[in-house]
Each structure stands twice: as C-alpha cells, then as structure tokens.
C-alpha cells in the first residue's frame, strides 16, 4: 500500500483527514515527519533543516486559512551535537518568528537516521474577536475559516501563490555542490499571512507540498470537480528557469508542477473576488486555470496525478 | 551529549522547556517520539502501540493539570499494512476517548524502523468558563493551571498516583512470551482526570515517565528543593510484585522507582489539602515523602538520579 492509499484509509476512519490540518474547537493541528534520506540532501544545514521542517507544518496551518500560533519538534539523531542542535532550534525559531508563531520546544530521540517530527498549532479566525471592537453586534463578521479542500465550484478560478520550482532548483544546486545557495532556496516563507488574507474569499485551499499536479487532483477529488489549467500561466521560479536553462521548456514545466515541496498555496476563488484577493495577499497570486465540472487537464490534455510521494 | 544534557540545552533556549508540555495562550502542546527498538518490545501489537504512543503525550497534558482536547500522530514504517494501520488508529482513538480527547489524524512516513511521533493538545482550565454559569462575577474562580515543575515548597508532601512498576512488569511478561497480558499492562490510562482534580491544589507536578527517582530530581532542580522519601510508602504495582516474587525486595523497589514508563503523576501539595485531593482524585493518591530544603533521599540515604533514558 502506498502513502496515498494509506492516507485514504486513514481518511475513511477520521473526519477531515483529507485536509492539510485537523480542526478541533477552533484550533488547527498538523504534524509531519521528515528525514535525512528523503528530505534533507547532503549539504543541508541543521539551521535549514529546522526552518524547513517546522515551516512544512506551518504551511499546513496556512493552507487552512488559520493563524499560526506555535510549533514543536522532535529532533532524532544518532548523537546530539551542541552546535547542530542549537542551529536546528535557531532555524525553527526563525521560521516561527517569520509567521508570528512561537517555537515552544520539543523532544529528543536517539535514531539511526536524522529524523524530525514537527507539529504546528493554529487558530481559526472566526470573526468573534471583531465584535469586541465593533459596534454592530447584530451583524457579526462571517465565519472565515477554516478553508477546506472540498469547496471548489465550477466557475471559480484556481490560483497559486508565488512561483513553483524553488525546491527543484535547490536540489539541483545541492547536486552541484552550491550548498549556500541551495540552503537559501530550501528556507521558504510559509504563506500564513497570505492564507489569512485569502481565506475570506477562497472556496477551497491546500498547499502545494506534493506538487501542483497532485494538489489539483486532490482538490478535484475533495470538491468533486475538475480543473482546466493553461501551462503558459504557471509561474515558474526564476531559479528553476536559471538552473534548467539548457533543458527543454516542457521538462522545466514538468519539474515545476510535479516536483513539489514548494509550500505555496493552491486555492480556488470566484472571479469576482480576484481583485480583493490580489489587494489583500502580500505575495503574487497567479490564476493558472478554471474550475470545471470534471477532469484535470492542462492545455486540454489530461494532467497525470503525479508528484512527490513524501517519505517514498 | 546525552539526552538530559541536550534537553538542558534546549531549556536554556526555550521558555518552559523543562515542563512536560509547552503552554501558549491557554493551549498546552507536547510531542514525543517512540520507536521499535527502544519502546515497543517484540509482541507489542499495533493497537497497543497506538494506545501507548498517544497515551504518552496525553500523560504530558495530564501532568500540566490541563484538559486533553486532541491528538495527532505520524506513523512511520517500512511498509503500510492495512490491518496494522487500522489497529494503530483504533488504539490511538480508544486512548483519546478514555480521556475525552479526539484523535484527529496524522501523517505517514516511510521509515526503516517502526517509529511513531505523537502530539497532544490540551487546554488550561482558567476558571473563566465558570463565570458563564455562576452569578458571583466579582469573585472568579482562581486560575488553576497550568501546573509546572517549579512550585514545590518545603513543608509540602510529595504524592504519586496509582502505583509504580506496571511497565517493568509488562516487559517481564513480554520476555516470557505472555504477550496478551503484557499488552494489557502496556495500555495505561493517562491521568488526565486526576491531573485536573489535583491541579487546584498541586504546587508542582510532572509525570513519572522517566521513573520516580528521576522525576524527583527533576522536580527538585526546577523547584530548588529536596525530597525525603520513605521506601515503604512507595506503592508497587501488584503485577510487578507478582512477576518479581522471587526477587529480593530491594530489587523490586529499585525497578519500581527507576524503570519508569508508568505515566503516573508525581506532585506536591500542602498537607492541609490532602483530604480534598484524595476526595477529588479518581485514583489512589499515595504520599511517599516530604518536600525538604535540599537533597533527594530515600530512607535518609541519597537517592541516585537514575532512570530510563528515553530513546537511549
């Protein structure tokens, strides 16, 4: 059984297991595990590992349209070197600070392979806080969260934040031994502020951690809809374009939409709301296609459900 | 650097890292990692593994005197067998149900060794909920949580819940191939209800996951005090007494106080509050000694800071 089949099984058992995070009483909770052989290429610093691992969980909070409040991590390694551990904690703290969350500690475990388990906690903005300062109690703000994967409607457009291919470019930099640049690329900004800005408008949302292609299939499954994507609208990260300058354009596009690990947001919204979304979002929002009744296509051809299988 | 030194290092960096769980805005968050070679003896069922791993995190919530609200887990294994995974989830759900929490899902990861990372979320009871139903708004309930490790005062007594040695007995049953009984013993009840009942009275609290001896040293360090324990007051689990019937009494006592993994609560309270604590707590509460100015002793001899080094 592969990971997706297993997740489907978990999903049958557990409410909302298909979303990026669970929601319990207004709290958003999500957990991930990353490890050396599949997630941290040779050359990844412990600072970057701390940033990236905690960032991956914060990205799941962002994908729910929630505020990020706190994160914890388990650091598992064959031995605990002071400098490594402090660097990891510094990376974890810095990525939390970047999104207004607090890194509040964790646990240590001996493990043959360097392995990190991270958990992020968030809070769904429910508009109830606004009544404290507002005067119009009879008309509370609408409930704006959480944003699930299941609300996309034909007629909406589908958008991505930022650009795709940053982690694919980082891998290439690691392969070339350009570790400093690779580490820079590996430390992404979780889109928490963007998720909050988009949440009042988005009909469905998730992050692109498994790649745009797979994300679209997952949104399509959850929302019982399809997507019609136009390849020339897909925003490709400058670094991917640079490292792959001699590659055929189709291969670069393929890497951008299937490599994943970019932790951008993929969301659907009505066309009428686009101007408000663009005004509110602190990063670029690009429309890559339309929500349709069925089938996931790119340039009118079927788009395969291929992407990065975490931990595979 | 061993685990305790590393945790001390984390503690220097992070507020409250010494407690069983972090507290952020009234939410209590804690995470742990368990794995096959050190935590799940041969014969441990996946149902028991799910129960025990999630239970360990719920015990940390209990040790803060908090309500347990939710838990998540990462299940990492070389392959994902349907029956194994469903059994794990069932165990995780059942232990959550036992304490009024919800198991809300998790993540899967491929890993050479069966490894589980668990996170539990709790809520500190702050008495504010009581004002909704009460009429005496001018006299709100006292803030009863969280209970930290740092409040023990000379003159208080030190108590443990339930009895010690259950996991040590389980290990012996596993060694004998008595897996059914061993699995039963391995599935403990996290002391969430007891933690909540004790919280309004306790000056310091933690769980006994590293053994009573080490817990006392950790409370002593955090509270800048000592403990004087009387060995004949230490409550020893019937099963440990049974499996070790032919062992010298000193060895049985040693196992009970150093093996750990019992997930009982160790707390300090003023002697005057003992009757109220005993009335409120749904399990037996045993006074094992006194809080003193300095030094951790048992029967007036120094008690070594020895215990189970998780992941060691």
Automatic annotation (TrEMBL), chains A, B:
Gene name, Swiss-Prot/TrEMBL: thiL
Protein residues bound to Mg(2+) 5: 210
Positions of Mg(2+) 3 binding: 20, 60, 207
Annotated residues for binding of substrate: 39, 261, 308
Classification via PANTHER family: THIAMINE-MONOPHOSPHATE KINASE (PTHR30270)
Keywords: ATP-binding, Kinase, Magnesium, Metal-binding, Nucleotide-binding, Thiamine biosynthesis, Transferase
Domain of life: Archaea
Start and end residues of each PurM-like C-terminal domain: 153-295
Extent of Low complexity compositional bias: 126-139
Residues at which Mg(2+) 1 binds: 31-32, 107
InterPro entries: PurM-like_C_dom, PurM-like_C_sf, PurM-like_N, PurM-like_N_sf, ThiL-like
Any GO BP: thiamine biosynthetic process
Catalytic activity: thiamine phosphate + ATP = thiamine diphosphate + ADP
CDD domains named in the record: ThiL
Other comment: Reaction mechanism of ThiL seems to utilize a direct, inline transfer of the gamma-phosphate of ATP to TMP rather than a phosphorylated enzyme intermediate.
UniProt pathway: Cofactor biosynthesis; thiamine diphosphate biosynthesis; thiamine diphosphate from thiamine phosphate: step 1/1
GO MF term set: ATP binding; magnesium ion binding; thiamine-phosphate kinase activity
Residues engaged in binding Mg(2+) 4: 20, 30, 60
Species per Swiss-Prot/TrEMBL record: Halovivax cerinus
Enzyme Commission identifier(s): 2.7.4.16
Enzyme class: transferase
Annotated positions binding Mg(2+) 2: 32, 60
Domain PurM-like N-terminal residue range list: 18-124
Segments of this protein annotated with the region Disordered: 123-152
Protein name, UniProt field: Thiamine-monophosphate kinase
